[in-house]
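Re: [help] complex structure
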Amino acid sequence: MAKFETRMLAAILAVSGAIAFGSAIVSPSPALAQEGVDYCLSCHNDPALQMTLPDGESLSLYASEEMLARSAHGSQGLTCQACHSEITTYPHPEIKFNTRRELSRSYYQACQKCHSTNYDKALDSIHAEMAAAGKLEAPICTDCHGAHEIKALGEPRTHISETCGQCHASVYAEYKASVHGGALSQGNPDVPVCTDCHGVHSIADPRTPQFRVKTPELCAGCHADAELMAKYGLSAEVYDIYQLSWHGVDVSVYKARWPTIWHDSAVCTDCHGIHNIRTTLDPESTVNPARLLATCQKCHPGAGPNWTGAWTGHNSINLVRTPYLFYTKVFYEYFVKLVLWLSIIYVALQIIRSTVDRVRRSLQ
Amino acid sequence: MSAIPRSATPEHTRLVRTFQRFTLGQRWEHAILILSALVLALTGLPQKYRAHEISQQILSTPERVQLFQQIHHLAALLLILEVLYHLGNAIALLFQRRLSGDIFPSLSDFRDAWLMLKYLLFLSKEKPAFGKYNFEQKVTYWFLFFGVGIMIATGLVLWFPITATKFLPGGVIPAAKLAHSTEAIVAVAFVLIWHFYHVHVERLNLSIFTGWLTEKDMRNFHALELQMLVPGTPLAENHPQESEPGGAA
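Output below.
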């Protein structure tokens, strides 16, 4: 984060340094057009160019041609002034920021000139909410995307989660050890990165009832995709079967009617973990048979060892996994038909016979 | 057996003999059964079909869901107490050697069912003569006897799942859930089709509330019992015969 920020600020503050602190290091070549990138770089292409902010932080003012060429903006031909719009010439206007953070929080607003949709989305995010509550370290555009070296974040895909990991280090460490994160680092494009579940710009607070109640749907985005699951030998029925379960029915009612009320019925992440999801075969998985009871006991304290047998394990009713359920189902399949048909037929026969008798009597 | 004057006009006084069919205790038991079963069905159905639109309107808040569960549990307690009383009473009567065998299935029930089937299929002209409880009524009683047994057993498993799995395998919980909700539907459908036809449509039989049947009802539907109570009564129903008041008891 600091790297990108520094670079962005470098370009701006070189000038300010020159004026405010009266220590002009270099002067731009008058031969160059003032609005051109080359004009700016004639001073700023110097790794040693830096200034000190009032709070004592030092700020590099370095920007190089290579840096800009690697950036999505530079290759599109954007000039420095597209973002640094208040700096039109040399000497630069004075810079009034006390800290680097203050400066970046001011400059990133330039993003909305072109990227208004994503900028507005980000304003609805938990990050913007945190910043509004005074936590200024909450990320802004440039913290994730960089300033002078803006790159498409999805290339390579691992870069996305690494970016979030810059701040969310412990979550990122958990994720890296998970079945999803592990596969991602091996270049697997199918597994979710942070943004697949949390969203991109409008990242919502995942601790709300609204987020919680939508969790099964979120996981189902991949785990109910038969084609995708078949690739990994996983069942794509897990979501549908969950929806029929005690937990699932409860959650679906809350989702439909009371999404803002907190509910305790288990969603996927309560049992499987959130960032630390592992395959059920992994002994460290919270749903591995060795640890399943402890996981159930989080919500069902006092449950004994037999308890886990109540869980059908996302299996459709079958003789091997759910024998009690299987035999009950088979019994009732026949019993219901038997009872209903016998009583309907018997009563129908009685109605016919008594009607015929009545008609006969009235004819006599 | 008692005689009730049916007409207030003296010159047209006609005595109708009535026969006791149910004791006061049995009538109370039936009333409690109706009450608890009705409440259980009405509070259970919205829970069974929780995802359904109508049920979501009834169970409109999480508190309402809880309330329905509590009412369901209260009605279940009432039903359990009624069943305990019923069984306790039967055991007490058994020890006193006063337990009537009328309700227990016997071979003649199969013969009666066969004869009735022949009658219903127009293969014979006469209905079989029945005793105190015909096979239809025995089917009703025993179907609901075991049905209520299943409902109570599975209901308790669902009410106290953690306790249940202390001595039962965990797999019984989802099985109990399936059995509880399926058996309930079967029982309700059975009562609506079978029981309601026999006590409301075939004839209006209110003896479970009043306690008695008229002699005509006895002759038409319980001829064998009547013959036992009043020796010499003919079995055929087309012989309306003024019986002597104060026959055998």
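The beta strands of chain B are 2-5, 15-20, 212-214.
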